[in-house]
Amino acid sequence: MASRRLIPQLLRTSSRLASVRPRATITITPLSSRQHISPFSTSRHHRDEASIPPAASPQAPDYLDEAERRIFDILVKDLQPTKLEVQDISGGCGSMYALDIVSEQFKGLPVIKQHRLVNKVLGEEIKKWHGVQLKTKAP
C-alpha cells in the first residue's frame, strides 16, 4: 500500500527536477576558423593558403626564466613552430610545464602522435618533470 503512494510522489518529484535542469548545449567555434564573406561583395575577402608566406619562428618572450627558455629553444629548433608558448605552472620549481605548440610537423598526425613527437624532442628534459599540460595542433 505504501508503494502505491510513493510511486506518484516520486514521479512528481522527478518531473519537477527535470524541468529545472538546463538542457541547452553550446558549441563554440574559434574566431580564427570562421570565414566571413559577404554575398554582396565583388572581391574575395580571404587569402588562398598558397599565397600565405610561411610564418617566422616565434621569438622567446623576455619574461621566460632560464628553464622555460631552454625548453622554448629546443622546441623552436626541432619543431619549427608557428606558435609556441612555454609556461612553468609548478609555482617556479620547474616540475610542471604548460606547452602550447602549433607546427607544420603535426599536419596529418593524430593528437597522440603529436604528443609523442613533443616527448621525443624534449627527451631527457621531460623526464625530470612531474607533469606536462600539452596542447598541440597543425596550422
Automatic annotation (TrEMBL):
- Low complexity bias: where? 51-61
Q: What is this protein called?
A: BolA protein
Question: Got a GO cellular component term for this one?
Answer: mitochondrial matrix
InterPro entries cross-referenced by the UniProt entry:
BolA, BolA-like_sf, Mt_Fe-S_assembly_factor
Q: Where is the signal peptide?
A: none
Q: Which PANTHER family match?
A: BOLA-LIKE PROTEIN 3
Q: Which organism is it from?
A: Septoria linicola
Q: Which family does it belong to?
A: Belongs to the BolA/IbaG family.
- Supply the Gene3D superfamilies for this chain: BolA-like
In this chain, the stretch annotated as Disordered covers: 36-61
